[in-house]
């Protein structure tokens, strides 16, 4: 048998083009699997390391009414508290030069950057800020055009520009980069610097750590701290429990990782179809050789082992190609996502478990796929093998499709030949179509997913009806604000809303949500990944209450169950459908919420709404009722505005003018924002996901292109004598090339026609699966443009994939094609 195995190596070396095609077919799938598994592993490793390095607080209490002096020391004396830390985060307006326009920013104050105990901020360049300088988050320098270290920027303090020096850049583990994070830079300052810049040292956040962390223990200690603070008149708005080993974005990263892994496995199994095609082709060519081996005494098992050994060699070569490329792809993909999450990336490395999985997959999967065609090929008798030029001889022309194409008239001879040749090997065509159709359907479903998310986002913002909003530092008298706004140019209509954070009452403490509340940012910690998150846990749920004026003409929510709020309702609520499902409540049921300071109110759910804002944790109630329970009667903190100018530039100018006018009237403005800006930021967040999914879709498309090229190469190999006959009767090189390129185009366009209905049928569950993975209430919308994009791609791929086989066909001479082995 030693000579038989020499034949394996000779076949591989002699037919180098076929060897490369098979190796690349297997390698693409194995590489895709390795890339995703490697990316998932590196992301989990780096995110976990970053989380531990930050020494996260075990519980965070968001407070109002607390002065800095002594509060951390007071909390540290509570039984069970190992360490306590008080910080400030507030909104502020800034600009890089005196001539620039004001922009919103977050200002974070830490007592002593050199003595941090928890939630560590790392210095990256320059020096720590002192009482006359500030630092900036490193990931916000380029997106927000922050000047270099040593430059001067300006803060809006009492309507004047206050100059502050930039001392350096820092990295905050809880600050994602745009577009995933908040659309504003974060600046860092000492408490002494905060007092100098703003004149205030009011604490907004208190963090604690406990010994021998467990969620239950952290919850009990945080309860004790909360009770102590509330007895001192400090309002604890809500509390978060942080698991010190879980990064804030782990749920989102895990969900995306699962989706990509499924797609990578699909790409791998699609490449298996190409292996089956190629093994069949080898057997077609070598049936006479099989007959000769049997004549000299070789058994079927021995012959099978020869061809299966060839498959093992293909697999080993494919793994040798796929492992380093997969590792490189994993580093690049994980680095791309980690940079956005503001987590340090990993260098190039081969993870042993991933390499092992690729080796097993690259060898076992093609081997299993090849068993049936090998057994079928070596099963022919000596007589059949020596008298046949290929497996399946004699079946062409007996099927109804063959007879239908044979009876076609009126088309050019080359077109008829192309059509008939395309279906001569239906099994081979079916496998090739399986790859192309699957790749096309997934590509179109990915585009429909992106379009569905964009439309869902647009529907949500249309339901609010405003063009921009103003956030006040303190609740303002409603009539006074509305009167002022009615006089300002560009303002068509204004409505005042009241916002209040609340939480389910049993239990009181909630677990960390991977997504920060929206406004007011001065009361919140870092951005926690924008709108993609998960608020469900075994310990409770946070609810952002929005007080809606009953006479609203802007707000038209998308109600998916129940009804809208009505005049005369008593404690009625519209609840986000996703949050309702997590809590386990529905229309007609009651939900008790804690509004802080032992104010517990029971609301009756009258409707469920589709709403992706505020991390999908929102409940809408009548403004006047919410004002009553929060001691804010006649006051509100948010102004929703409809504008007469519908251009982006015009709307920003209206808000800038309005903000300056309100500030001059003594109404402190925390921030302003246009609806279009919010919508663009949210779209950009999902654009990241779409880019990653499209990368996998293109990998599958490459598998399809390689498969199509391989199929046409097999056809050339099988039809050498036919090509010789065509040459002998006067066919030119362009005629021969036309036939094979035409076959490629026909197969590509046919796959497009088959993939379209499949993408329509599979689109809704695909969108639902992606939405569930990232905790997003996406609603399916078909993207018609996806059909035409894939048609363009498949036509280009078909022509490119057909070119090399067609070129080989034109190089076959009459003498070579009609000679025998």
Characterization of the model:
Helix content is 52%, strand content 20%. It has 821 residues and is α+β, with helices and mostly antiparallel strands. It has four domains: 1-52 and 246-393, no CATH class; 56-241, no CATH class; 425-463 and 676-821, no CATH class; 468-645, no CATH class. The strands form two sheets. The chain has a six-stranded mixed beta barrel.
Sequence stretches where pLDDT stays below 50 over 5 or more residues: 506-539
Strand content: 15-25%
Helical amount: 40-55%
Total strands: 21
- Give a quick account of the main beta sheet: strands, pairing sense, barrel closure: 6 strands, mixed, barrel
As laid out across the biggest beta sheet, the strand order is 2-3-8-5-7-6
Short structural summary:
With 821 residues, this protein is an alpha+beta fold. Helices cover 52% and strands 20% of the residues. It has 21 helices and 21 strands.
What layout of secondary structure does this protein have?
Layout: H1 2-14, H2 16-53, E1 59-67, H3 71-76, E2 81-95, E3 103-110, E4 121-126, E5 133-137, E6 152-157, E7 160-172, E8 186-190, H4 191-198, E9 202-210, H5 215-231, E10 235-241, H6 250-295, H7 300-341, H8 352-378, H9 382-387, H10 400-406, H11 413-422, H12 426-464, E11 468-477, H13 478-486, E12 491-504, E13 510-511, E14 542-548, E15 558-562, E16 572-576, H14 577-583, E17 590-594, E18 600-610, E19 618-622, H15 623-629, E20 635-643, H16 648-664, E21 669-674, H17 675-718, H18 720-728, H19 733-773, H20 784-810, H21 814-818
Parallel strand pairs: 3-8, 5-7, 10-13, 14-19, 16-18
Antiparallel strand pairs: 1-9, 1-10, 2-3, 2-6, 2-9, 4-7, 5-8, 6-7, 11-20, 11-21, 12-14, 12-17, 12-20, 15-18, 16-19, 17-18
């Amino acid at each position: 048998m030693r000579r038989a195995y020499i034949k394996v190596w000779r076949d591989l070396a002699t037919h180098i083009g076929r060897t490369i095609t098979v190796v690349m077919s297997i390698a693409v799938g194995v590489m895709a699997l390795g890339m995703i598994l490697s990316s998932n592993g590196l992301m989990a490793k780096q995110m976990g390391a970053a989380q531990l390095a930050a020494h996260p607080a075990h519980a965070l209490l968001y407070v109002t009414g607390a002065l800095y002096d002594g509060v951390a020391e007071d909390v540290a004396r509570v039984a069970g508290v190992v360490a306590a830390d008080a910080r400030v985060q507030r909104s502020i307006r800034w600009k890089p030069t005196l001539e620039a326009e004001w922009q919103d920013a977050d200002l974070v104050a830490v007592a002593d950057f050199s003595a941090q105990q928890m939630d560590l901020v790392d210095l990256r360049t320059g020096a720590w800020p002192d009482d006359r300088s500030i630092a900036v988050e490193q990931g916000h320098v380029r997106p927000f055009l922050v000047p270099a270290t040593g430059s001067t920027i300006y803060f809006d303090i009492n309507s004047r520009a206050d100059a502050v020096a930039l001392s350096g850049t820092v990295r905050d583990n809880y600050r994602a980069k745009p577009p995933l994070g908040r659309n504003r830079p974060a600046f860092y300052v000492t408490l002494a610097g905060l007092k100098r810049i703003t004149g205030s040292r009011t604490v907004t956040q208190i963090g604690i750590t406990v010994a021998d962390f467990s969620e239950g223990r952290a919850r009990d200690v945080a309860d004790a701290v909360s009770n102590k603070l509330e007895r001192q008149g400090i309002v604890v708005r809500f509390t978060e429990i942080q698991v010190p080993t879980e990064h804030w974005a782990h749920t989102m990263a895990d969900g995306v990782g699962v989706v990509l892994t499924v797609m990578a496995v699909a790409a791998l199994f699609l490449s298996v179809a190409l292996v089956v095609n190629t093994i069949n082709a080898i057997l077609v060519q070598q049936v006479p050789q099989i007959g000769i081996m049997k004549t000299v005494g070789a058994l079927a098992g021995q012959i099978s082992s020869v061809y299966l050994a060839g498959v093992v060699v293909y697999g080993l070569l494919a793994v040798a190609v796929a492992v380093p490329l997969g590792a490189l792809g994993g580093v690049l993909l994980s680095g791309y996502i980690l940079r956005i999450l503001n987590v340090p990336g990993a260098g190039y490395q081969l993870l042993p478990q991933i390499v092992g999985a690729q080796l097993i997959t690259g060898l076992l999967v093609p081997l299993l796929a090849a068993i049936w065609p090998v057994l079928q090929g070596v099963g022919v008798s000596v007589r059949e093998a020596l008298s046949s030029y290929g497996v399946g001889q004699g079946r062409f022309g007996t099927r109804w499709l063959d007879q239908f194409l044979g009876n076609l008239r009126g088309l050019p001879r080359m077109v008829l030949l192309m059509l008939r040749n395309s279906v001569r090997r239906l099994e081979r065509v079916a496998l090739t179509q399986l790859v192309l159709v699957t790749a096309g359907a997934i590509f179109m479903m990915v585009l429909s997913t992106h379009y569905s998310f964009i439309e869902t986002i647009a529907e949500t913002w249309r339901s609010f009806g405003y063009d921009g909003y103003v956030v006040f530092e303190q609740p303002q008298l409603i009539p006074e604000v509305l009167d002022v706004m009615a006089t300002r140019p560009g303002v068509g209509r204004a409505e005042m809303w009241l916002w209040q954070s609340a939480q389910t009452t049993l239990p009181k403490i909630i677990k960390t949500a991977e997504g920060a509340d929206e406004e007011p940012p001065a009361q919140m910690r870092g951005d926690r990944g924008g709108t993609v998150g998960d608020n469900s846990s075994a310990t409770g749920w946070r609810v952002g209450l929005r007080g809606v004026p009953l006479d609203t003409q802007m707000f038209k929510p998308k109600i998916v169950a129940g009804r809208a709020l009505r005049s005369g309702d008593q404690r009625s609520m519209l609840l986000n459908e996703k949050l309702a499902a997590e809590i386990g409540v529905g229309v007609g049921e009651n939900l008790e919420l804690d509004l802080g300071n032992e104010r517990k109110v029971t609301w009756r759910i009258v409707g469920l709404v589709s709403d992706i804002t505020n991390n999908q944790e929102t409940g809408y109630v009548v403004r006047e009722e919410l004002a009553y329970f929060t001691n804010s009667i006649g006051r509100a903190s948010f102004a929703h505005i409809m504008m007469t100018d519908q251009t982006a530039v015009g709307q920003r100018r209206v808000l800038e003018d309005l903000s300056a006018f309100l500030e001059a009237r003594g109404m402190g403005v925390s921030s302003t924002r246009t609806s279009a800006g919010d919508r663009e930021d949210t779209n950009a967040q999902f654009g990241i996901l779409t880019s990653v999914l499209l990368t996998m879709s293109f990998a599958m498309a490459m598998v399809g292109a390689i498969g199509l090229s391989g199929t046409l190469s097999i056809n050339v190999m099988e039809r050498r004598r036919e090509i010789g006959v065509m040459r002998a009767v006067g066919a030119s090189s362009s005629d021969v090339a036309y036939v094979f390129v035409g076959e490629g185009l026909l197969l590509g366009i046919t796959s497009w026609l088959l993939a379209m209905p499949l993408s329509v049928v599979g689109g809704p569950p695909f969108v639902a699966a992606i939405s569930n993975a990232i905790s997003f209430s996406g609603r399916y919308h078909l993207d018609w443009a996806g059909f035409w994009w894939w048609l363009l791609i498949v036509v280009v791929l078909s022509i490119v994939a057909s070119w090399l086989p067609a070129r080989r066909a034109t190089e076959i001479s009459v003498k070579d094609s009609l000679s025998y082995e």
